[in-house]
Amino acid sequence: MTDATGLDDDELSAWRSFVEMHHMLERHLVKHLQRDFGLSDSDFEILVNLSEAPGGRLRAFELGRATQWEKSRMSHHLGRMEKRGLVKKEVSDARYPDVVLTAAGRAAIAASAPANAARVRELFVEVVGPERLAVLKAASDDVLAALTEHVDACASSRKDAQHADD
Question: Where is the HTH marR-type domain (predicted)?
Answer without folding.
Answer: 32-132
